[in-house]
Design brief:
The chain starts with 9 loop residues before the first strand and ends with a helix. The mean pLDDT is 91. 34% of the residues lie in helices and 21% in strands.
């Protein structure tokens, strides 16, 4: 019987799903957002940590074959200790926490310690992995029964507890997890006990992510194919006639950017928009933030300009970051959007305009196609008489002076509100740098001059064969200045425009 709970803390044992961040449950996301401490495993997609509070402690306790950060006993002690301290602990485990995930053992330790806990189920790779490879684990024409077992048992046991005779004779589909290292032994035992060597079989590696790879063979040939191809864990194995459905419904691996590894160099906060669009097209995305957005050095001076925003005829925004910084300050100073006064709003492009529109504010002026400073100036010249008008330009610390110089030459009075500064990202990219070095990439994307400059400051050589994609001419100028050849430049200087240019490039 579980002891009566005494701590004000609570530990959520959360199934983080198989890898695709979109497969996290709503309950799981809520638990991440509520956590004071996030304790996560090797198979947990690090993107899920974004749902956590900025000040939440993050503790990696990953375990993979032959390499354990912490032993299971140490993990148990850790989550008990943190929960007893009164903290909200979210323990993230790949897939489902109790399907071969040792979540039950962790729950038992928490119960024994008398602290509160909840088990939050997750989508298991045993079902999602085959589905993302175009293999349904059950099918009216093939299988009405599903058997799931583990290929990685307790190493302290003297002999297996799996009944291979029953497994071999079980009808329908068989799925086993964590068995790549023992693939020859497992398939051999199944055939030894009567399973047919010609039974279709597949292995799905890094299932549901852009790194997914699928190896199809038969029960009798899969072990040799693993050896020939160097196929590695983590992978889910599926055995049965359902594997033949892959030819017809292989939806995930047929997407246009499948098999392409693409690096995104935007800030961590901004990267998601570009990453999601690339992932939806099948790319394996490495988020390598080269810059970080920080408050301006003269925050008081910026605040004073925002406070006087209602005195201006125009407010000019030239980046989404500028919009965010402006309204973060505005909301501290005012509690009514009408305090913006009669100022009209100009935006450099649709990404910036969307940020303004999210505030239920109209955008009065935007270039038709050239979403750069020159395009915005051209729009002013074509549509507005701004002589003697007061303009507040919300900008980054280091920005080309095109806006100020050109509008001033048209007779306007321009005040520059430095809303933020971009600084080099030195900490939040170490894992991505390791992936880039070890795995290489097909393409690296740059969305501003600052991402180019700060990437070069990292001193990282581009992998052999890695091409460069630029969002537009200003970014391309920075690349050209550093003799970095450009393979792709977006025709529309926006994130969707960049994604479309990349899609067309690889379609060739």
């Amino acid at each position: 019987m579980a002891k009566k709970t005494s701590s004000s803390g609570i530990c959520y044992l959360v199934g983080a799903g198989p890898g695709d961040p979109g497969l996290l449950t709503i309950k799981g996301k809520e638990c991440i957002a509520a956590a004071d401490v996030l304790v996560y495993d090797y198979l947990v997609n690090a993107d899920l940590l974004r749902h956590g509070k900025p000040n939440a402690e993050r503790i990696y306790v990953g375990k993979k074959a032959g390499d354990h950060t912490l032993s299971q006993e140490e993990i148990n002690k850790l989550i008990v200790k943190l929960t007893k301290e009164g903290k909200v602990v979210t323990r993230l485990k790949g897939g489902d926490p109790v399907l071969f995930g040792r979540g039950a053992e962790e729950a038992a330790e928490l119960a024994e310690a008398g602290v509160r806990f909840e088990l939050v189920p997750g989508i298991t790779s045993a079902i999602a992995g085959p589905a993302y490879a175009g293999i349904p684990v059950t099918h009216r024409s093939h299988a009405s029964q599903l058997t799931i077992f583990t290929g990685h048992e307790d190493p302290t046991k003297s002999e297996t507890s799996l009944n291979y005779a029953k497994l071999a004779q079980a009808e329908g589909t068989k799925v086993f997890l964590m068995g790549v290292e023992r693939i020859g032994e497992i398939t051999g035992e199944l055939m030894k006990h009567g399973a047919k060597p010609e039974t279709p079989m597949a292995l799905v590696r890094w299932a549901t992510t852009g790194r997914q790879q699928t190896l199809v063979a038969t029960l009798g040939t899969i072990a040799q194919r693993v050896k020939e191809t160097g196929f590695k864990a983590p992978a889910v194995a599926v055995v049965g006639d359902v594997v033949t459905e892959r030819d017809a419904i292989n939806w995930f691996e047929n997407r246009p950017l499948y098999g392409k590894r693409i690096v995104v160099t935007r800030t961590r906060q901004q990267a998601g928009v570009l990453s999601r669009q690339l992932i939806e097209l099948g790319a394996d995305v490495i988020e390598l933030p080269t810059i970080r957005i920080e408050e301006p050095q003269d925050l008081l001076g910026f605040g004073e300009l925002v406070q006087d925003c209602h005195k201006y005829d125009w407010i000019v925004f030239t980046s989404p970051n500028g919009v965010d910084a402006f309204f973060k300050m505005f909301d501290k100073l005012y509690n009514d959007s009408r305090c913006l006064g009669a100022a009209r709003i100009a935006c450099i492009g649709p990404g910036t305009a969307e940020k303004v529109k999210a505030r239920h504010l109209a955008v009065d002026l935007m270039p038709e196609k050239d979403f750069v400073a020159e395009g915005l100036v051209k729009a002013f010249k074509a549509n507005q008489n701004i002589e003697n008008q007061m303009i507040l330009w919300v900008k980054a610390a280091e920005t080309r002076e095109v806006i100020s110089n050109e509008l001033t030459s048209m007779g306007a009075i321009v005040d520059e509100a430095i809303a933020y500064q971009t600084v080099a990202e030195k900490e939040d990219n170490l894992e991505a740098l390791a992936r880039l070095k070890n795995e290489g990439a097909d393409m690296i994307t740059f969305t501003s001059s600052s991402t180019v400059e700060h990437f070069l400051d990292l001193g990282v050589a581009l992998p052999e064969g890695c091409e460069i994609a630029s969002i537009g001419p200003v970014t391309s100028q920075a690349l050209t200045r550093h003799q970095m050849p450009i393979a792709v430049e977006a025709k529309s200087f926006t994130i969707p425009g960049l994604v479309e240019a990349i899609r067309k490039h690889f379609a060739k």
